[in-house]
Design goal:
mainly beta; Immunoglobulin-like; Maltoporin, Chain A; 22-stranded antiparallel β-barrel; five-stranded mixed sheet; globular
Length: 749
């Protein structure tokens, strides 16, 4: 296995000498699971010639592999994937030939007894900010449902901060939720995380792979400055019909899939609806007025040896109050996503390249309903098309592409921000990118890239250079690095002064037309320790410019202008992963420091300062996450413990009364209105947060179906974790208490 991974993308000196010769051949194809016809992302394909020289490739998220620069001759082909039987065959290569060889791997016996996640997708695998996860890895994180969810998995990682168990807001290494790019089959999803923080639009049984870039992402991604979550949804079963239904105190779901034309056309459909409003009084002892759900449909056509196309559609909805106090529930938030589009992967018959076409539309609606203030709303629509090309050049992959997108934005913010009230805008952009992986010597891989975007005004391209580096020092130790510049035109603004708000309005650059910018620098190392341990450590630095934030005031007020802030983020993630047989363990620690520098508003009057330097409310300095699990035959157990140091908050300086003196009256009889006076922004720290989650699953065979019974608890030792403190009503708002749950799931066949 080590030799196979080593050969992936890096040939020996002898093979490199043949890359530039005329008549070099190409081998390509798709690797699938023989039991259901689904692609196997990450499967390894290795070719060994008569001299013992190795050349190999790892299948991409669609199962496609491409090996270029082959000389004529006979090769020994070997295809392998963790949990599947290795397949070997002979491949005869003629000079200049383009050989298409599809490979179907049969599940191995070990896959029936335990869940194995390959090294390329484990928690200890972190490559320049990138971590890949598959369905089995997502299931390892306990969630109050019959299975796992990508939202819970993301929150288990160092550097990912969730302010609470409500709101669906994720902050990645100092970035805000509006700075994260989330893709579903290549299509953007504005807000895929549900109002109950355990759930997203991506349950484990719909996900094929998810690439999560905490920073340093390559040139093919643009439009955001913090992170990327690139999710590939799996295809439907091409061999037989299947269905599944589940129920838990939080969620009920139904999934169906199967062939419309066997081995050629398949479908996958899913619908989920929350039931927590009805179940909360029984399971939590309190009301929880939160509603959410989603519907997903995917059609996939396998166009023989040359192509594979799919149509995907997703709709999500959320509604509820972050503060669930029944006497005065505060703001009611509503949002929904509607995404539809298509994607095709093709191997042209007489070319060695791989072509990807993506196109579709993504619509987002976000509303806050208020009893005391005007309603605020935001609508955002993005229509985009992309073409990506992967072609061998001197035996190395050259990736290039072009895109065009149109963003329609409509927003009405009432009196929240003085310089952004209401508007409707159309932004059009076209661009291109290119990046190529180059090997220097036998162990150094360098991938430079460049993204260029052109806007109608001011007709000047925006260039974003990127660089990713990998140096394999020894057989079990690899160093990684990434450096890049990033820019964001469409900006999500919110009022970070209000911890109880999750409303985000999407607008053009709202202050002086300045676009938010960032520079990322990452350096890390991976070390395999024996056969069971893997250590990964990564340090990072981000420089932020022109981030829109509200001007802070020592006097509590609803309306405020927006201003621009510069910032810096630095920190480190350390992870240790253990896997042996049925046992799995993971421990991660994250250290982070996020600071902003912005115009200080009225603080100059109060404190003699014109510039505010502060840590924003998502600056969590220390995080610890520990996951333990075991799976054997029909039993599975998992435990997760999380710790997070206290988040910043703004201390109260004092209170005073405002007198409504409209006429000459006795001051003692004038109407008084209490007012809160604040200290410097976010100068205090809330109490630390920690939580223990447990899950135990037992599977049964019942009349040709598989029944799973899962029991567990979220916040098992009933820690009282503070969500935020309402200084206006002098009342604390806590996160959820202990949440015991029992979930049932049945699958046919």
């Amino acid at each position: 296995m080590a030799a196979l991974i080593w050969a992936s993308g890096i040939g020996t000196a002898g093979a490199q000498a043949q890359e530039g010769r005329a008549g070099a051949a190409v081998a390509r194809g798709v690797v699938t699971d023989a039991s259901n016809g689904l692609p196997l992302p990450g499967a390894n394909v290795l070719l060994r010639d008569s001299t013992g020289t190795l050349r190999g490739s790892a299948a991409n998220q669609d199962g496609f592999y491409l090996i270029a620069g082959l000389a004529a001759g006979a090769y020994r082909l070997q295809a392998s994937f963790i949990g599947f039987e290795t397949q070997e065959d002979t491949l005869i290569v003629e000079a200049g030939a383009i050989i298409t060889r599809h490979i179907a791997l049969a599940p191995g016996a070990t896959a029936l007894d335990e869940v194995i996640v390959g090294a390329e997708s484990g928690a200890g695998r972190m490559r320049g900010g990138l971590q890949t996860v598959r369905s089995a890895g997502i299931r390892r994180i306990p969630a109050p449902d019959a299975g796992g969810d990508l939202a819970s998995w993301l929150q288990s990682l160092p550097g990912v901060v969730a302010l609470g168990d409500r709101g669906g807001q994720l902050f990645v290494r100092g970035g805000t939720p509006a700075q994260n790019l989330v893709l579903m089959d290549g299509l953007p999803v504005w807000q895929p995380f549900h109002i109950v923080g355990f759930f997203s639009a991506f349950p484990h049984d719909l996900v094929s792979t998810a690439d999560f870039y905490a920073g340093g992402f390559g040139a093919r991604y643009n439009g955001r400055i913090s992170s990327v979550v690139d999710v590939t949804m799996r295809d439907g079963n091409t061999q037989r019909f299947a269905a599944a239904g589940s129920a838990s105190p939080f969620l009920a779901s139904l999934r169906v899939e199967g062939p419309l034309r066997k081995e050629a056309l398949s479908f996958l459909g899913s619908a989920r609806l929350s039931v927590i409003e009805r179940a909360a009084p029984t399971f939590l002892g309190q009301s929880l007025p939160l509603r959410f759900g989603d519907v997903f449909l995917k059609l996939t056509s396998s166009g023989g040896a040359q192509s594979r196309c799919s149509l995907s559609a997703l709709h999500t909805f959320d509604r509820g109050a972050i503060d669930v106090d029944q006497a005065n529930p505060g703001d009611i938030f509503r949002w929904s996503n509607t995404v539809a589009g298509g994607r095709c992967i093709a191997f042209p018959a007489n070319a060695s390249s791989m072509l990807e076409l993506v196109g579709g539309a993504s619509y987002f609606n976000n509303v806050v309903e208020q009893s005391m203030r005007p309603e605020r709303s935001s609508d955002a629509l993005e229509i985009n098309t992309k073409i990506n090309l992967t072609a061998p050049w001197r035996g190395r992959p050259l990736r290039a592409g072009a895109f065009a997108r149109a963003n329609w934005l409509k927003y009405a913010l009432g009196e929240q921000f003085q310089n952004v009230r209401a508007g409707e805008d159309l932004l059009i952009a076209v661009g291109a990118y290119a990046e190529m992986e180059t090997t220097l010597g036998a162990s150094l891989s360098v991938t430079p890239g460049l993204s260029a975007t052109l806007y109608p005004e001011p007709y000047k391209p925006v260039l974003e250079p990127r660089l990713r580096v990998s140096w394999r020092q020894r057989a079990h130790r690899t160093f990684h690095g990434a450096l890049g510049a990033y820019r964001q035109t469409v900006t999500g603004v919110n009022d970070e002064r209000d911890a109880g708000s999750v409303f985000t309005a999407w607008v053009p650059a709202p202050v002086q037309g300045a676009q938010a910018q960032a520079v990322h620098l990452l350096v890390g190392v991976e070390q395999q320790i024996g056969a069971t341990l893997r250590l990964a450590a990564e340090g990072y630095y981000k420089r932020l410019r022109d981030i829109p934030v509200p001007i802070l005031s020592a006097i509590a007020r609803f309306t405020t202008p927006l201003t621009l802030a510069d910032g810096r983020v630095y920190g480190a993630d350390v992870r240790l992963e253990f896997q042996r047989g049925i046992l799995y363990g993971y421990a991660g620690y994250g250290l982070a420091n996020t600071s902003y520098r912005a115009t200080d508003g009225s603080f100059g009057t109060w404190f003699g300062e014109t510039i505010a330097r502060y840590s924003p409310p998502h600056d969590r300095r220390h995080q610890v996450s520990v996951v333990l699990g075991a799976e054997r035959r029909k039993f599975a157990a998992s435990v997760r413990w999380q710790f997070g140091s206290g988040l910043p908050f703004t201390r109260v300086l004092g209170f005073d009364d405002v007198l409504a003196l409209r006429t000459l009256v006795d001051v003692r009889e004038a109407a008084r209105r209490p007012r809160v006076l604040f200290e410097r922004p976010w100068n205090g720290r809330l109490p630390a947060y920690h939580r223990l989650d447990l899950s135990l699953e037992r599977r049964f065979d019942v009349a040709g179906a598989a029944l799973s019974v899962q029991a567990g608890a979220i916040n098992a030792y009933d820690r009282t974790n503070l969500f935020y403190f309402d200084v206006f009503r002098v009342r604390r708002v806590d996160q959820l208490p202990i949440v015991p749950f029992i979930a049932l799931k049945i699958e046919w066949p």
